[in-house]
Amino acid sequence: MALKIPYSRVDWINTIFLLAISLLALVAAPIHLFRHGLDWFIGGLFAFYVIATGMSITLGYHRLFSHLSFKAKWPVRLFTLVFGACAFENSALNWASDHRRHHKHTDHDDDPYNIQQGFLWAHIGWILFKVLPEPPLDNVADLRRDRLVMLQHRTDKLIAVGVGLILPAALGYWWNGTEGALAGFLIVGALRVFVVQQCTFFINSLCHTIGRQPYSSTCSARDSTLMAFLTFGEGYHNFHHRFQHDYRNGVKAWAFDPTKWATWCLAKVGLVSGLRRVPEHQILLAEMDEARKHVGRQLADIHQSGTSVCDNALQAVHALEETLALAYHELGEAIDRKAEISRRTLARWRRQTRELVERVSALAPTPT
Ligand SMILES: [Zn+2]
Ligand SMILES: [Zn+2]
């Protein structure tokens, strides 16, 4: 069947821009690299721009402006607004508005990058087509009070072209004449925009497709360490959708989340404050709740499929399930009464939660 494209809704500016960036990044930049190689100056500038623009999206556009996970002084807001614009992902105001709708309507029609409309739609399709009528910016009234945000909203394209493309070319020219200018434009400009954009797009597509759901299975968001490496720590998307205001996405101490570490460091030097953290008890309660639901689903599947499982293993699952049901009840009550529970007890319950999921997955014919 022929693919029907609704041409009247195509956003031609976005489409042509993304096509041009892809061609420059995937064809022109590699040819340039093959012919002239990469010197330390252009390589260093590329690394700086990737980190500065990528983190301005994750730390600035996402955790600061969209979720208000912490408060930031003007130098941090200014830096993330300038370099965030250089990712060519729209103004912070528009980005936050889309993103807040994504969280409010995840997996439903009003979710701008709804994964239920297909992987490609969530990854890039939603940028290539206009939503008509255009949704109002009625969910970012708080950001409208920030003068820097509003200034960037009016000038983001200018900043993007000036700081994101022309400045690297100018620095390249200063370093190595015309050849340097071309390297600055192609590698630090186009290739870097392509890399950072794809990393952001992965969050909307792959982070709703691959990985585990330890905190909630009520929406498609998933946790994946691999994705965390590709997205400056945003790969722990299941936790993020369950606790969207927490400044951490990788909540475990060992989780790869450079955005969390950068925010923590900025707090230490007084540039950001009021870091929001969900209490440990609350997180464990969500994990226990999800583990119990997971076990219920797996046991129902086994029962339905008539798969035979070892009696002893099944009994062990049921025994652990009962222990955890009591712990879940005790933890819920402690949270309601604001009572303390020792770290040792919390650690034991966390271990048992993990063990229950492992044991039932070992039973199940198709572990999820
Ligand atoms: Zn999401
Ligand atoms: Zn978010």
UniProtKB/TrEMBL annotation:
Coarse class of the protein's main subcellular location: membrane
Gene Ontology CC entries for this record: membrane
Keywords: Fatty acid biosynthesis, Fatty acid metabolism, Iron, Lipid biosynthesis, Lipid metabolism, Membrane, Oxidoreductase, Transmembrane, Transmembrane helix
Membrane topology: Multi-pass membrane protein
Transmembrane segments: 12-34, 40-61, 158-175, 181-203
Biological process terms in GO annotation: fatty acid biosynthetic process
PANTHER family for the chain: ACYL-COA DESATURASE, DESATURASE 1, ISOFORM A-RELATED
Protein name: Stearoyl-CoA desaturase (Delta-9 desaturase)
